[in-house]
Amino acid sequence: MGYPRMLEVRQRFDAPRVDDVAGTVAAELARIGVRGRIQPGATVAIGVGSRGITNLALVVRTLVGVLKEAGARPFIVPAMGSHGGATVEGQRAILAGYGITEDGVGAPIRPSMETVDLGATDGVPIHFDRTAFEADHVAIVNRVKPHTNFAGEIESGLLKMTVIGFGKHTGAALYHRAIVDHGFDHVVRRAGQAILARGRIAFGLALVENGYDETALVEAVPAAAFAERDQALLVLAKRWLPRLPVQRPDLLIVDEMGKNVSGSGMDTNVVGRKPHGRLEDDPQVKRLFVRALTPETRGNAYGIGLADFATSRLIRAIDYRTTAVNSLTAANPEAAQLPIHFDSDREVIDAALASAGLAPPERTRVVRIRNTLHLDRLLVSEVCRAELAARANVEIIEPAHELAFDEAGNLPPLRFAAQP
Fold this sequence. Notes:
This protein is of the alpha/beta class and 420 residues long. It is 32% helix and 20% strand.
């Protein structure tokens, strides 16, 4: 079978960046008067999730330091629903993978899967992490970004972590079941209001990233403003979100997927296939091939159901129980469905191109990326040259080269030309 010749491409994104992250965190906390909100001696539970967030350990360490200077007693609580296999050990390990350790951030870590039943709103039971609920105050650190399953005025951010992250396995499962009936925006707003009304959540640190996976914005937000600021910051997050330079690839090759990359392993805002709330300008990928899991995802292949094809080595690396628990908790069993897989990349690509339409394989529209976070450098087949030339933010770096395989029939690692 023939293969398309590939171009090395660079995309340039609108990319505001926070250069002094620690200083900005401290300044933001001072702006909202955290010292006046937290009394000396008070305990503060800091909620940290399972997402791969740039500078997360630095942000948390700085927050811990500011709270200690105010005389408070901060500690870390995993606020990640059922992730980590819905176990204390699994959630602690996820935090450690991001550098969130007791020595690393200067505060104890108190993981627990126990929740407090706070009644119900609109018939939805409200559950909240017991350890955090017993603290004097709660602070939340999270990234504001487009959700991978739902579209609305509020998606991923402070309010989502308040509800689903702190809901642990029990609460997250109930909320996602309610979302099936009532929609994401409604459930998160209503449950969030019920939780915030208890008054224990003091503030959050909202982070927004640019198209280069860098910290673009840090904002301290009082609890009463969570919904308002989530909505406003989501507009910026969508504006700065990186995109593929080809709207309708015949084949998208994703070298790695995982929870540290996206909640769904691969960001559906990049690869398309969002289950709910699809937009007209979402990418339309005919065939999606994912090659490996990231080490940081610890076998959680939630989102593998988005792919049409995978390697057998990826399938063998899946922790099926962890993946199934995450998928069932999210009321999205489709996310754990396994794609067709073969031992080598060549076998997969042959099958994918043969099923992608009538175009000869050497004339197919193929895109290869490292993962859905890193889209500034990628490979695109030569047949897409005209579409690339029409985009002002796209530059072709290297002449076209053959799609090559090693002796085992696998693609070599992605290596790009040095930046000028």
